[in-house]
Design a protein that fits this description.
The chain is 0% helix and 33% strand. The protein has a 4-stranded antiparallel beta sheet, with no helix packed on it. Strands 1-2 form a two-stranded antiparallel ribbon.
Length: 103
């Protein structure tokens, strides 16, 4: 959703095209928002909290996906995947160029 300060209303935007994830990195670059990696949140464990007898970051629930939301087009696209699954990392834009992404 996006808030329009002029009309003081919330506007629905395109939905994220995957299950909810926690622990993903988020970054804005040019006119895009990137969601990178993370961990799938299941209906049986909606908080992603450690369940007794299970691994907190089981590799089958971790993601190597990169999603890109175009603010101008109101559209989500899949960007090239990470070479491996990641969770709870940071991301930043390299300052000398607007086309480099560092994780």
């Amino acid at each position: 959703m996006r808030y329009d300060g002029t009309t003081q209303t919330w506007i629905n935007l395109a939905s994220i095209p995957r299950e909810a994830a926690i622990g993903c990195a988020a970054l804005t670059m040019t006119s895009n928002i990137y969601l990178i990696g993370g961990q799938v949140v299941s209906r049986s464990n909606p908080t992603g909290a450690l369940i007794q007898g299970s691994a907190a970051c089981a590799s089958d629930s971790m993601l190597n996906t990169v999603l890109c939301y175009s603010i101008e087009d109101n559209e989500w696209k899949t960007a090239p995947h990470l070479p491996y699954k990641m969770i709870h990392m940071g991301a930043t834009q390299v300052l000398y160029t607007s086309t480099k992404l560092t994780i």
